[in-house]
Backbone:
């Protein structure tokens, strides 16, 4: 299979891991900088060119499009879709995830838990907007920010009004959310692939920082999520339309609250935290099932099961046969019966030869009136 990877830098950790996984599976990969791709948007023969070469005959495309190039990157991805190339994540789903307001509206429509969120355009509505989300402290976010950029915690009403006025002065679009204090500056990143949570980690912000992004100095560790959190992550990814997504969840007093659905989740943090390889074929099945690779309790259970199986096999080999063997000759009580049956069969054969086949053929069918 020929796979195109849309990425600005082939040396990035996530891009390198994708190339390694594809190569080990026997696929051919090529990294394409989406900003160096140019297109012929034609009715009959749409084309994509990259550095003077026509790009064609690719079976799949993996988009690793940064937030800063969402517009042009999704345009290139749409061109691949027009050529019939399978996208790991569709262009429309990526556009939904990059617009925080649109993704929140999609989550709200599906009844998925999230922090109370508000948005307003006019400065005259600032007071009511803050009341809608429960008052200070509040979190103010730019609609198209990523990795914690453009996210501000306003602990007082005056601070919230100042930040809102500053964003409006820059003609920036933003939203206001309630501050979930009980989360303690931590969130859960669920890695969703094809409708399943394959890994999850807890990200904790550094001291004095409410943002838990790893790019902001946060730390990550393995975490066990609840069935409700697992279902919430899967539903959130499906609501946005992503096959592969990183769903960020807060543990609030009202239950799981989705913060964001990321269409290009990084692989380094999740692999380091969970010690799992996102490429399942690289993990040797035989090694996984061996007791030395399991936890001590699992190894003991494996040993007990093996011992019981060995005992059962030993008993089968050494135990006497519960059913006595039949004697070599015919049984006495059956000898007379067999002799009588043999004599009856002989008389039937003699009678049949004497009567001839004609009588048998001319006999009316059973059940007819002539037979009675």
Residues:
């Amino acid at each position: 299979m020929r796979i195109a990877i849309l990425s600005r830098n082939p040396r990035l950790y996530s891009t390198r891991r994708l190339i390694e996984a594809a190569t080990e599976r026997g696929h051919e990969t090529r990294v394409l900088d989406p900003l160096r791709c140019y297109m012929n948007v034609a009715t009959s023969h749409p084309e994509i060119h990259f550095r003077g070469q026509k790009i064609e005959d690719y079976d799949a495309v993996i988009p690793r499009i940064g937030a800063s190039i969402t517009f042009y990157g999704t345009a290139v991805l749409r061109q691949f879709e027009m050529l019939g190339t399978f996208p790991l994540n569709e262009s429309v789903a990526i556009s939904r995830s990059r617009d925080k307001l649109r993704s929140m509206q999609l989550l709200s429509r599906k009844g998925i838990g999230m922090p109370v969120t508000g948005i307003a355009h006019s400065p005259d509505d600032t007071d009511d907007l803050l009341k809608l989300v429960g008052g200070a402290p509040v979190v103010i976010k730019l609609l198209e920010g990523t990795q914690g950029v453009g996210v501000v915690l306003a602990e007082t009403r005056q601070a919230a009004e100042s930040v809102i006025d500053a964003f409006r002065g820059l003609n920036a679009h933003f939203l206001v959310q309630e501050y979930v204090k009980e989360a303690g500056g931590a969130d859960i990143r669920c890695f969703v692939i094809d409708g399943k949570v394959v890994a999850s980690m807890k990200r904790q912000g550094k001291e004095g920082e409410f943002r838990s992004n790893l790019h902001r100095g946060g730390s990550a560790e393995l975490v066990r999520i609840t069935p409700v959190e697992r279902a919430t992550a899967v539903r959130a990814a499906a609501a946005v339309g992503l096959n592969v997504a990183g769903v960020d969840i807060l543990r609030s007093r009202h239950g799981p609250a989705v913060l964001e659905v990321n269409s290009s989740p990084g692989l380094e943090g999740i692999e380091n935290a969970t010690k799992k390889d996102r490429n399942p074929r690289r993990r040797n099945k035989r090694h996984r099932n061996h007791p030395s690779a399991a936890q001590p309790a699992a190894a003991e259970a494996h040993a007990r099961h093996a011992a019981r199986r060995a005992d059962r096999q030993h008993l089968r080999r050494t135990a006497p046969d519960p059913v006595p063997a039949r004697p070599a000759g015919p049984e006495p009580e059956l000898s007379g019966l067999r002799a009588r049956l043999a004599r009856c069969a002989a008389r039937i054969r003699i009678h049949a030869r004497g009567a001839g086949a004609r009588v048998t053929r001319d006999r009316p069918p059973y059940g007819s009136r002539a037979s009675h």
Notes: The two ends are 79 Å apart (CA to CA). The domain at 116-179 is CATH 3.30.1490.20 (Dna Ligase; domain 1). The longest helix spans residues 332-362.
